[in-house]
Amino acid sequence: MQSQNPLPKNLEVNLDQFVGTFKNAFEPEYCERAIKYFERMDEMGFGYSRVQLENAPSHLKDTVSFNTSRGVANGVAEQQITGVPDIQDYFLDRAWSCFNIYAEKFSSLKTQNPLAMFELKIQKTDVGGGYHVWHWEQEGKANCNRILNVQLFLNTVEEGGSTEFLYMNRLIPAVQGTLLIYPGNYTHLHRGNPPRSGCKYLINSWLEY
Q1: Cis previous bond, 173, omega within 30
Q2: Global pTM?
Q3: Strand partners for 183
Q4: Residue 107: inside a domain, yes or no?
Q5: How confident is the chain (209 residues) per 10-residue block, as mean pLDDT?
Q6: What's the confidence (pLDDT) of residue 28?
Q7: Largest Cα–Cα separation, the chain
Q8: 95 close to 150: Cβ distance less than 8 angstroms
Q9: Contact by Cβ (8 Å): 148, 182
Q10: What is the 3-state secondary structure (H, E, C) of the chain?
Q11: In a domain, 13, yes or no
């Protein structure tokens, strides 16, 4: 499918250790719209805290999230996402374009059909919060179909807030507009470190069977 939103000319791509880093993948204007959308939905009561919903200890999981509908398979919108297409549909279209670049490098992904991004989650982490526990996306039978994690930083965090990969001894800072694509299995055990200078916003999705 031809993307309706061509990739930015200042896009910077790095594919190292199976982690795809796409700097400037999303414009600041889009990121700010997504943050405002999250805050509006959270004020209306649609956000959920992992501490409240999952009874998770705050030293393990301390974030607030809002989930949207499902929608795109093999780059084609099979189910229309209603409400705010300039947030969800735009993300899915642009993220899929980045995945196509990733799949050119790791071409075995092209043989996995159909692949889809079903769920889109916008997440806020307050100062000191975070997904502190080391984890991988395919943990548990319910999540075993998550091939890749797709993660977008919506704002820049000057201190803290990085995504850290344990086995690679690698930190990726939270920089507005940067999209990450990386495997969902145990090789890419990771966590979201606490932001120190201000809250962190991100969008998370998965490429699944």
Answers
A1: no
A2: 0.86
A3: 148
A4: yes
A5: 77 98 98 91 71 54 55 46 70 94 95 81 87 89 91 97 96 98 97 94 91
A6: 97
A7: 44
A8: yes
A9: yes
A10: CCCCCCCCCCCEEEEECCEEEEECCCCHHHHHHHHHHHHHHHHCCCCEEHHHHCCCCCCCEECEEEECCCCEECCEECCCCCCCCCCHHHHHHHHHHHHHHHHHHCHHHHHCCCCEEEEEEEEEECCCCEEEEEECCCCCHHHCCEEEEEEEECCCCCCECCEEECCCCEEECCCCCCEEEEECCHHHCEEECCECCCCEEEEEEEEEC
A11: no
Kindly state whether residue 14 falls inside one of the protein's structural domains: no
Domain range holding 197? 28-208
**4's tokens:** 């309706």
Q: Over the stretch 110-138, which tens digit does the pLDDT of each residue have? A: 888 778 887 788 888 989 888 788 999 99
Question: Quick one: pLDDT at residue 54?
Answer: 57
Q: Does residue 153 sit within a domain? A: yes
Residue 106 has a pLDDT of 96
CATH code assigned at 172: 2.60.120.620
Residue 42 is predicted with a pLDDT of 79
Number of independent structural domains in the chain? 1
